[in-house]
Amino acid sequence: AGGRMFFVWLAQLAATLIAAPPITLPPLPSNRLALGFDFGTSGARAVLLAADGTRVGTSADVKWGERERLQTASDWVEALSELLEQIPRDLRARVARIGVSGTSSTVLICERESGSPSVCRGAPRMYDFSVAKQAPGECGARALNLIAAHAPPLHAARAATSTLAKVLAWDAEAALTADEVVAHQADYVAAQLCGRAPDGTFRSDWHNALKLGFDVSSLCYPTWLLAGELGEKLADRLPQVLRPGEAFGGITAAAAEKWALPSDCIVAAGSTDSISAFLASGAKDVGDAVSSLGSTLAIKLLSEVPVDDSSRGVYSHRLGDLWLVGGASNVGCAVLREQDFSDDELEELSVLIDVSSAPAQPDYYPLPAAIVGERFPTADDSRVAKLEPVPASRADFLHSILHGIARVEAQGYHALAQLGASELRRVLTAGGGSRNAVWTALRERMLGVSTSRAPEADAAVGVALLAARGA
Question: Signal peptide location in the record (predicted)?
Fold first, then answer.
């Protein structure tokens, strides 16, 4: 039944697809620069690009450290300021465009009048926050039931980690007031530079707004979200959504003075961190994919058709008139640090791994110890790590962990194929894991297609390119 509903939905989407609007920003002048900020899972960084895409400068990373899943909006503002102050004033004086990417589905509630985080709502709800497990009492269940009663089958907003679920769980705790508005992480950071819309709401982009319920086929919020009970809760509180790369607006006088930025600088609509990494990678043909091997694993495949299945954590972002389909798992390189693998040890032990042989423990599921639950390739709120038994050899232990992460990656691409996405043709790799050549060879054997390190993997570069090109 679920499969039939999906194809009905796909036919409806094809019938209502609106062509991507034209690029409105002119080319970046040859003597000016584009500045990209990426607020990722492990930290934040900034990159400056010339008009031809050449990297002019890169900041030192601001790491979240132990606050990775305990971030506050103040942390983001402090990181933004620290990153800007690292950039020499003569280069800041040449910045004409700015773009910001953030982690997908990281959201907070703000006060309409001030734009500050709502004090009574607590910290932002991060990308992996599950209302089914972490929202108080029955608030998560009430939010998910409400979404199930209105959202289309298999829609990304139905997931327990969706932005919409987090916002409605807040509303279930205490009804949203007229003075409260919704902001994604990237929206909030960008607003520190260009302000908000005149009605006090924030500005967002197609990519961040997808899991809030934004319809990327008709390029508007759908009727099911704005009418009836949901509309009563959300009307006039949602961000205004623009095409990624389109101008949010000019920098405010206060921001220009505070950070010595040109008064004619434009802040462009940004993206999510994993999509920005894809844009930086050079992947451009249907069948090209990017696997981001950072603290967590995210995969993105460029497809001619969208595929969505919230029960498997699969969703489709619009990229012009093509689709970037994929999902994000909670497994990833974070577990290597938890198991005390240093950079030197990873390098020394990796060369001892025979990628043609089976690992000592072939069924590991390398979740961090603090995480209960999985988002993709199958959403499972009760999933826990499996990292036992531990082999006597550290090399065998490492082999088993790397194999376990690669197995989840392969299962992810298999899930996309099952749902009808375009055929996988090659995989480029971003993130810290891309530096491990032995792991790349192991993954290539498991994926069955050409697998290599992306020539550029910095999400800050991707969002800077987006701002520079206007799309």
Answer: 1-19
